Every structure is written in C-alpha cells, then in structure tokens.
Amino acid sequence: MANVDRAAAERLLDKLRDLVDTHLDEDERSLFAALLAPGIAQAYGGAEVEGFALDWTPGSLPTALVEALEDRQVRIEGL
Hints:
Helix content is 57%, strand content 8%. It is mainly alpha-helical. It has a two-stranded antiparallel ribbon. A hairpin with a 2-residue loop joins strand 1 (49-51) and strand 2. The longest helix is centred in the N-terminal third of the chain and has 18 residues, at 6-23. The N and C termini lie close together (9 Å).
C-alpha cells in the first residue's frame, strides 16, 4: 500500500465524499462511518474519531454491522 500516490488518495476521498453526500441515507452514513473510523483514527495517531454524527472508539462497531459483515463473509485480503 505504500506505493499509492497522493493523487489516488485524493480521488478516493472525493469519491467517498460523493458516495456519502449523494447515495447514503442517515442510517447508512452512520454505519459507513463506523467502517471507516479505524483507518481514520490510525491516520490521526489513534485519536478518537468523530464524524457522520458518530463518536467512534475502538470496539464500538455496531452489532448489526458486524453480523452483516460476517453473514456476507467480508474479508480484507493482503493487510
């Protein structure tokens, strides 16, 4: 992942912002924030993350989201 350039990162963030602003309802935005929060916290040195009307701390992934991920067998490969 170290080879990803700044322009690619900025394009990704722009696309995520567009997804959130145009395609997700309020409940989905909160769940999406819960998924992103660990990575954002890491970028800020492990600080607590607040966004999308969600205060995130480690271990606070909503149970319904955990169950949906497990049911769909979502995995992150190569990390």
